Amino acid sequence: MPISINTIVISDTPQATKLLKSVLAPTDYKVIFESNDLTQQLKASWMIEPDLIIVAMEKTDFTLLGQLKTIYEQFPLPMVVFTQDDIDEGIEFAVEAGVNAYIVDGLRKNRVIPILKTACARFAKQQEVQKQIEQLRTSLADRKIIDRAKGLIMEQRNCSEDEAYKLLRTSAMKQNLRMAVLSKNIIDAATLLQSS
After folding, report:
1. Is residue 7 within 8 Å of 25, Cβ to Cβ?
2. N or C, fewer C-beta in 10 Å, the chain?
3. Range of the domain at 142
């Protein structure tokens, strides 16, 4: 059973809206909202969460791009912009807003679906990379905390780094804690004792 892709269509021309709706109608892309701007959609709570936003605009609308940025920061989802305007500032602003595809002079029936699929795939890949970056940041932060706790253990127990690590690992396993959590507890306790 195909999964519907809940789609918002924002267009400043009736012709673009009509073209997009005719292309999307026989596909899995289900138009759940259409308008010429996002203002009312930003103020309301979404009954059905969108999976994709498509914007068709003749000229670069920086207000609309700002609204897309607000949506992306709070609720990341794929966004595609079709426009006739190729000004550099518009392209840069769109990229900053999180737009996955900024298509100049390309709103044609035979191009819409491949562009949407590419934008959705690019979005999924970006989300995957972002998740990996967050995991690496967490891992690096954990490593710093563990190293600091090892230093405290080495100082307190007068032991080697290897022995401190083994003690930390064994204690974490016995207490069913992640090493970073136990290390943070050790650091917190040492800080408390030093400030007393």
Report:
1. no
2. N
3. 133-195
CA-CA-CA-CA torsion sign (151, 156, 158, 163): negative
Q: Residue 152 corresponds to which tokens in the numbers above?
A: 């405290």
What φ, ψ does residue 86 adopt, rounded to 5°? -115, 30
132-145 burial, b at 16+ Cβ within 10 Å, e below that, comes to: eeeeeeeeeebeeb
Length of the chain: 196
Cβ neighbours, 10 Å, residue 31: 16
Helix or strand or coil: residue 104? strand
Quick one: pLDDT at residue 1?
40
Tell me the whole-structure pTM to 2 decimals. 0.76
Phi, psi at residue 129, to the nearest 5°?
A: -65, -40
How many domains does the structure of the chain reveal? 2
Tens of pLDDT, residue by residue over 76-127, are 999 999 999 989 999 999 999 999 999 999 899 999 999 999 999 999 999 9
Q: What is the CATH number of the domain that holds 153?
A: 1.10.10.10
Q: Which residues sit opposite 7 in a β-bridge?
A: 31, 52
CA angle at 92 for the pair 36 and 73, rounded to the nearest 5°: 65
The Cα-based distances of 83 to 13, 28, 90, 169 in angstroms read: 11, 24, 10, 57
